[in-house]
Each structure stands twice: as structure tokens, then as C-alpha cells.
Write a structure and sequence with these properties.
Order of helices and strands: EEHEHEHEHEEHEHHEEH
CATH superfamily: Spore Coat Polysaccharide Biosynthesis Protein SpsA, Chain A
Largest sheet: 8 strands, mixed
Strand order of the largest sheet: 1-4-3-2-5-8-6-9
Shape: globular
Distance between the termini: 37 Å
Strand content: 15-25%
Number of domains: 1
Number of strands: 10
Structural class: alpha/beta
Helix content: 25-40%
CATH class: Alpha Beta
Number of helices: 8
Length: about 260
């Protein structure tokens, strides 16, 4: 199925794991897209996929259309241009909610989020009655493959700082491999989310935590992309730290003034 930014007219069958939607934002991922969708369905055959493509000049959107034409489990959203990770996920969430999906999943196109880890994340969501499950690099059992020491230092250090300054118990606040319940997203006030880049993940973690909902981290193996160029850089990391600091102070002030009760993740 191919769509523009508008929601589909008819809802998909919501039966078992066909009620699960994996949202994959793409920009210049033509060499990765087919292999990641193939892996998703090898390990999770009933889930549906939504490719949210930001008008990739390398033909990713056209490839997505071809895959959708061959497999009814694959859907495509063509967006006007490169608008950022957060905007792509917000559009994907809106599409998924409109079409009746009960679980909505964030997954990168480059293979760093292994589809092999998804079954354990879905199991944890149900067994632990979680509102949000995060595939975590920084809990016991979590691993990172093929990252240089410098990037591991930046990521782990940044997560530790955000964890402390925002008072969150989540260890991998910036992780992008996530399973949301429909009911969770409906409570987050997504229409007010303005964060567009990687800070988007921290923003949603904060919102879930501040509403007192349950967050569970499941260890995953994070694998650095083999094809293409990572869109992460130091400026993005430092922007995330600045925004997290601001939110941390805002939340602490709200707690002290009694505007919000302290919640734990």
C-alpha cells in the first residue's frame, strides 16, 4: 500500500501480531531497505511495516513502492522532504493510530536495530505489563557492535548525564528501538511535540515517565550500520544534552512547586 502524508482510508486487519506496526523512517536507505524489511518478516512474519520516506533522492521511496506492491504487509508514506526523525515518527504514529494498530514500533532502516530482538521486546511488553519497552544497549546483556571507543564514550556519557539531570531511571534514554502501546501514545500529547531530531527519543521518554507510566528496558545487540552514512554527529549530541538539561530543571522546579508529582520510570 502506498500513501502520501494523509492517513489511509481503510484500517488493516487487527489480528494478533498483524495489529503491530513497525515504522521505519528513511532518507537515502536504498541499499538497506529491502534487507531490513526481509529480516523483520523472517523473525516477525505477521507484523506490518510502514516506510516513512522523506523524498529520498537515491530512490528509496520508489523501492519501497515496489516492495509494497508485492507484499500487503508493507505500506509506504511519501513525505515532502527531509523533515527530521521526530517528524517522520510522528507522521507514522498518526497513520498507525488512524489505521487501528495496537502496538507501534520504532526501528532504524540501517540494521542497527536487529529484528531478531523484536520478539523478546514484544514478550516483555505483555509479561511486564509495560506501557513502553525500550531496546537498551546499557542494561545487563545489552551490547554494541562495531562502534569506535570515541562514539561509545559520547553515547554512554550522554545517556548517563541525561539519566542523572532528568532524574530518570531509564539507562538508555536516547535509544531509538522502542515498542509503544497505542494507549501510551494517545496520552502523550503528540500534537505538542516539537523536537525533531534525536532529542525526540528523550522527549518521549520524559513524557511517558512524567505521566507515571511503566517503562521496561530489554537488552539488545546494537550493530553499527555497514552501508551508508550515520546521521549522528557531535552537534546533535550536544543539542540533546542542552535540551535535556533544560527539561531536567523544568521538571525539578515543577516537583518543588507541587505542579507535578515525582514519577519513576
Amino acid at each position: 500500500m502506498t500513501e502520501s502524508n494523509s492517513p489511509a482510508e481503510s484500517a488493516p486487519e487487527a489480528d494478533g501480531r498483524s495489529a503491530v506496526l513497525v515504522i521505519i523512517p528513511t532518507y537515502n536507505e536504498v541499499d538497506n531497505l529491502e534487507r531490513i524489511i526481509t529480516r523483520v518478516h523472517e523473525h516477525n512474519p505477521q507484523v506490518h511495516v510502514l516506510v516513512a520516506d522523506d523524498n529520498s533522492p537515491d530512490g528509496t521511496g520508489e523501492l519501497a513502492d515496489k516492495l509494497a506492491a508485492k507484499d500487503e504487509r508493507v505500506n509506504v508514506m511519501h513525505r515532502a522532504g527531509k523533515q527530521g526523525l521526530g517528524a517522520a515518527y510522528l507522521a507514522g504514529f498518526a497513520w498507525g493510530l488512524e489505521n487501528g494498530y495496537q502496538l507501534l514500533i520504532e526501528m532504524d532502516a540501517d540494521g542497527s536495530h536487529r529484528p531478531e530482538d523484536l520478539p523478546s521486546m514484544l514478550t516483555a511488553l505483555e509479561e511486564k505489563n509495560a506501557d513502553l519497552v525500550i531496546g537498551s544497549r546499557y542494561v545487563k546483556g545489552g551490547k554494541i557492535v562495531n562502534w569506535p571507543a570515541s562514539r561509545q564514550f559520547l553515547s554512554r556519557g550522554g545517556n548517563t548525564y541525561i539519566h542523572l539531570v532528568m532524574g530518570l531511571k531509564v539507562r538508555d534514554v536516547t535509544a531509538g528501538y522502542r515498542v509503544f502501546r497505542r494507549s501510551t501514545l494517545e496520552r502523550l500529547g503528540l500534537e505538542s511535540v516539537e523536537s525533531g531530531g534525536y532529542i525526540f527519543q528523550t522527549d518521549l521518554t520524559r513524557r511517558v515517565n512524567n505521566l507515571g507510566m511503566k517503562i521496561v528496558e530489554v537488552p539488545i545487540t546494537f550493530v553499527e550500520r555497514e552501508i551508508g552514512v550515520s546521521k549522528m554527529n557531535r552537534s546533535i549530541m550536544f543539542e540533546s544534552l542542552w535540551r535535556a538539561t533544560t527539561w531536567g530543571f523544568e521538571d525539578r522546579i515543577a516537583q518543588l512547586t507541587g505542579k507535578r508529582k515525582k514519577q519513576s520510570a
